[in-house]
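Aim 2 progress update. The chain analyzed this quarter is reproduced below.
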Amino acid sequence: MAEDSQGARMQQGVATEALAGRGITVRSVFLAAGVSAAVSVVVGYIEYDVRGSELTRSHFPMGALMVYLLVVLALNPLIRLLARRYALSDTEQLAILAGALVGGAVPGVGLTGYFLGVIAAPYYFATPENQWGEFFHPHIPTWLAPRNVNRSIDYLYEGLPTGVSIPWSVWLVPVACWMALATALFVGSICLAVILRKQWAESERLTYPVLRPVLDLTVREGTGLPRLFWVGFCIASGIICWNMINYFVPSFPIIPNIRWGPWVWFDGGFEGRWIPGIWTRINMFTISFAYFANIDVLFSFWFFGVLFIARSGILNRFGFNASTPWNTSREFSWLNLGAFFMLVFWGLWTARRHLKAVVRKALDGDAPLDDAEEMMGYRTALLGLGLSMVFAVFWLWRAGMGFGVACLYLFATLVIYLGVARIVSDVGLVFVCTPVGAQDMVTRMLGPRNLAASTHTALAFSNGLTSYGKGLFMPAVTHAAKIADTCPGPDRRRLLVTVLLAFAAGAAASIVYTLYAGYTLGAYNFKYYHPFRSYSKGGFITALAQMRNPEPIDPLRLSLFGIGLGVMALLTFLKYRFSWWPLHPIGFPIAGVSYVYWTTFSVFIAWAIKFVLLQVGGATLYRRYRPFFLGVLTGYTLGVSLSVLVDVIWFPGAGHYVHGY
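Predicted structure tokens:
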């Protein structure tokens, strides 16, 4: 009996070792693709049918987090308990995580909601009064957007009549052409992420705070979770569940500043006559991730947010349109844009030796830089990046842009992608967007009167790639490259296949479901701020105004761009030249920018908690409380999931906005 018991223990030990050492398998690749497709459908259903929270606006999409935590914390432990040999290893779960991140960047305000909404807009919203037919329609190639043949676009927005089938054929060519461009940008983003991974992760030691809590939950010792985890879990989920009672009993008191925070104004005005306000929502999602970021980076973000308030108040008082009550103005966002460009340029300058080594390795396979553990070799990455960019320029040129404009637009787009990915990888903010879109930047820099009508039209269509200013796929694939860094060497090339298949599965599922939901529900019944309504029209409204009344180049915007470049260069110099300089420059480019600014109060809370813990107990006390914030993140995710489930059952079509910035 003793020998049998010892043998059983030895067999269990071998099984455990095999489970821990299993790499990326075929099943994990297809599971990642399945999770990506599931995220696309779930997000589409919640946003279109239920009309609940937007689950794709953050850089760790809530839809992806909900599905992934279900796998890691519920399904896989259950499988491990019932049939251990079939449980997923840590590496397999990380492959699913990479697929979930990529899949989460596709639906809603990621890729598909925008480009499908944009290509449907010019024919549905065209009227004799707005003259879209006169200004835009002659410059739209047949492959760029579906025509309203037999009212096919009308039915998308208004729903199909009884007995009429979905006109899939109308969408085949435009969707295929747009997905060719999206695939080129996706592949180019992967190539950039591979080229820069070693520089960011090893030389500059970026912390990737968005990944750290999820990696802690994936790769953990033992099967239990510490008490602090459950304390944070109960607090976060308990608050949301308490507030959910108000769904059924409107008079029931709620815990304030959780679902929606009031604005605080500093000059007595309802909407801040001179000074921008502060949104006081306590966002547990933002706080959970920000806790894992560097404290000097967190301080920089909220400090520059306070400077933005003071600066805007003074400038507004003296007659400058420096801000709205909620964020920076369109003109002064160019100050942030200049800083944004300097952030990217400085990062590339810092990486110049690494980039030279990458080129040398691509030209000479015997060069010393090792690329064996990257998702792809450097030669493949450089070739893939070059071909992707050439194809993208060609695509934009055939869509109607002038060749030079297409090159400038693509350059601006890449800078935006890199800047957003860099900030997310360093700061740990889950809500980040660019100060100015590539369309507006190109138009203002070249001057609207210097652009042809076909270029204006093509630039309006380019709004389909904005992804709400989130950098489209770049942040997701940057984090996928970091995930590859945690996988065994041979599995990193397999992770590339995983990511590509996850993108294909997520895009296909999202496109099919989005069109299906549009034709069955009527896309005009989607949320007001969804891309199919206000956002899809925005680019064309702006382009039409510039075509009708073309303006010269605006010297104020260009001057502010130059000032932003200079200030950011000075801040960067001070940070890297003097060790005592307290301000990290990364907070300046996003100070006051759109919804990024609205998270300032929550980031301040995360900084204050971390500052107190470090002052009282140092790094030891900080590490001790990490499980608490893992619990907050998990409990918050469960609370949002339960709220969505309640909406599905009791409030279909009238869901509650629980998750957001």
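The first helix runs from residue 2 to 21. The radius of gyration is 25 Å. These observations will guide the mutagenesis experiments scheduled for the next reporting period.
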